[in-house]
Specification:
alpha/beta; about 30% helix; 2 domains; 6 helices; three-stranded mixed beta sheet; CBS-domain; about 20% strand; four-stranded mixed beta sheet; single chain
Length: about 170
């Protein structure tokens, strides 16, 4: 990286210029511009959150959770205990952990099959943070929380719909 102050050619990733000690740490971080890039970099996730989540307790039966998911056409339920997010139960949990068992879903409890302590975002986090967490984690749903309490839910489909709608405006 070339130092903007003295022109010295530094190693990529250097925090300071080896010649003049000019800080370089944030020089290679992409900065938002207008339009689509600005949406990704700056738009708070609260503007994208399109679903009111289905909230259940850990004692809810898997059968009831699946019925709620089917009724609301949503791929997950958020598991809340003591007012705080405890886990998430998704279609993937159902497929990978329960399909092929001979147990009745109404006799199994969400707490046994949920993903505990799921990755979350806060309402002020940007869309890029949510998309990055979903991409890196390999999941399609991310709860929006404030101090551990559920505020909403963002799905990959919500994010794509939002970006498509906003891109057509510009």
């Amino acid at each position: 990286m070339v130092c903007p102050r003295c022109g010295h050619n530094n190693f990529e990733g250097a925090d300071r210029c080896a010649n003049c000690i000019e800080p370089l740490r944030d020089r290679d971080v992409p900065q938002p511009t207008a339009g689509f890039q600005g949406l990704l970099m700056e738009e708070p996730i609260s503007a994208v959150a399109g679903h009111q989540p289905i909230v259940v307790t850990p004692e809810t039966s898997v059968g009831e959770a699946v019925r709620l998911m089917k009724q609301r056409r949503l791929g997950c339920v958020l598991v809340v205990e003591g007012g705080k997010l405890a886990g998430i139960f998704t279609e993937r949990d159902l497929l990978l952990k329960l399909i092929g068992t001979d147990k009745a879903l109404d006799h199994l409890y969400v707490r046994e099959y949920m993903t505990p302590e799921p990755e979350t975002v806060e309402g002020s986090d940007s869309l890029r943070i949510a998309l990055n967490k979903m991409s890196v984690g390999g999941f399609r749903h991310i709860p929006v929380v404030a101090e551990g309490q559920v505020m909403g839910l963002v799905t990959a489909k919500d994010a794509l719909k939002y970006l498509a709608r906003e891109a057509l405006k510009n």
